[in-house]
């Protein structure tokens, strides 16, 4: 077993042990809803911070999306709605609708989570050091609403060598 496969196995086991709420498949397709979300631009010229209260986020998001985006949760591997999505389109933040990733940059990582080589632009995500679960990782958050998206690793394919390993429930997919 390679070092990468061992690390991925540990990560998958850790994620499987996290509590998860049952939600319907239709909730994932619903995406961001509520006042002020649908009118936010998907591709703004400048990304500015969006601040909402925790009560607003709870009212706005489906329970699983709230747990991941606002509480830095992780969905179980191979269970999110987009891990095996191969359609052309774009992935938006599930909290604020900011365009984050293009399907053209998605690849099969074998991890059970949607993986991308890069965001659509450097200003769409922020990276923070994450030392939870006894590991040191690089957490990826939305640059507009600071919602937890997943983690980035240095074991991805060309052209970047990066693997942005994202939670499906943190995003909304819009077909091309």
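Sequence proposed for the structure above (176 residues):
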């Amino acid at each position: 077993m390679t070092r990468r496969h061992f690390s991925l196995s540990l990560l998958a086991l850790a994620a499987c042990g996290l509590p998860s709420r049952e939600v319907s498949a239709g909730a994932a397709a619903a995406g961001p809803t509520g006042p002020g979300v649908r009118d936010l631009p998907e591709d703004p010229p400048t990304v500015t911070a969006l601040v909402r209260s925790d009560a607003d986020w709870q009212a706005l998001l489906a329970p699983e999306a709230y747990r991941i985006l606002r509480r830095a949760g992780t969905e179980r591997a191979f269970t999110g709605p987009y891990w095996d999505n191969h359609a052309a389109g774009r992935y938006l933040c599930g909290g604020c609708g900011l365009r984050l990733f293009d399907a053209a940059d998605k690849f099969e990582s074998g991890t059970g989570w949607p993986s991308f080589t890069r965001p659509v632009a450097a200003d769409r995500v922020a990276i923070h050091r994450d030392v939870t679960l006894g590991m040191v990782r690089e957490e990826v958050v939305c640059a507009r609403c600071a919602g937890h998206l997943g983690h980035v690793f240095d074991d991805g394919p060309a052209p970047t060598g990066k693997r942005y390993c994202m939670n499906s429930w943190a995003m909304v997919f819009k077909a091309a």
